[in-house]
Amino acid sequence: MTKVDIAYLRSLVETPSVTGSEVAVANLVRERLASVADEITTNVMGSVHATLQGSTGAPHVMIAAHMDEVGLMVTYISEQGYLSVSAVGGVDAAILPGMRVDVHTEHGVIRGVVGRKPIHLIEPDERKKVTPLSQLVIDLGMPAKKVKKLVRIGDVITYGVGFERFGKGMAVSRGFDDKLGVYIGTRVMEEIKAQGGARATYTFAATVQEEIGLRGGTTSAYSVEPDVGIAFDVTHATDYPGIDQTKYGALICGQGPVIARGPNINPVVFERLCAAAETQEIAYQLEAEPAVTGTDAGAIQVARGGRACGLISVPLRYMHTPTEVISLCDIENTVSLLTQFIMDLDDEVSFVPGM
């Protein structure tokens, strides 16, 4: 990855986009693809659709990746100026005590801390329990009058951390789920453009509100009407202690992109994704998905009369925490795989199983 690409990835993950508040990331996508895409539109939901036109008669392929991240929302401001919050998406209350957070208001970002009684004041039997979110507060360190002037009910809150490289070829950040996919979808379009275009038409859909029910993926798949849709999302790495690989499979950071297989996945798309990886001599991993996946693929497959669908992921450790961990080499390999998949599509391909 170049320094410019690393800077773009950093800007994506560090730009706040709690579900329902994705506008700032959408702006980054439109800016990055302004000189690349033939057309960029944004729907009423807020999802961005950037299209690179191909040849008449060739398939229309859409890659979908969601822009939203999990976070918190202000639900109450006490007389003392402390904030009560609810989760937006899947937030684990166990990780919150003692954390620094950012409250995003119309007046700017305000730093806060998640407060809880210190261990000295917690009864011994309480110490074994997770403090529920409803009993945690956010302390902004300012008088109540000022808090109530600056903060409104419904303001969103993100973990107060950003992007770092660490270890050997690894990176850690909040929001890799799934702004990593936003990065990949953008880079695929740039690669196709650099190669002179593809026969297939390619639409990158940067979708909204995945974390609360695939809402952006549902509306984008309906309106774009692709012949084939590929969802990109992160998946659970199982390469650290405490994860049962006999139950969740062996998915290793740094050993390549993950291609899903199961009833949510069109078998022709699956085989062509594997073939694209082999053409590029990219190591890849397989993940069994015996039911509908919890990704935009679940929405794409059943859009309108049904769509050929695939799912590509990158292994990620510690999902939905402030310390999501990935291997940087998996990112570039995924870009190469998806670019090859699209470049291989022509007007002869059929995605009807068995035909």
Spans of at least 5 consecutive residues whose pLDDT stays below 50 are none
Shape: globular
Helix/strand-derived category reads: alpha+beta
Distance between the termini: 40 Å
Number of helices: 9
Instruction: Kindly state the percentage of residues in helix.
Output: 25-40%
Q: Provide the spatial order of strands within the biggest beta sheet.
A: 1-2-12-3-13-16-14-15
* Beta-strand fraction estimate: 25-35%
Number of E-state strands: 17
Average pLDDT, to the nearest integer?
96
Explained architecture:
This protein has 355 residues and is of the alpha+beta class. The chain has nine helices and 17 strands. The strands form three sheets. An eight-stranded mixed sheet has the order 1-2-12-3-13-16-14-15, sandwiched between helices. It has a six-stranded antiparallel sheet with strand order 5-4-9-6-7-8. The chain has a three-stranded antiparallel sheet with strand order 10-11-17. α7 links the parallel β14 and β15 (285-288). The longest helix has 19 residues, at 176-194. The model has no long low-confidence stretch (mean pLDDT 96).
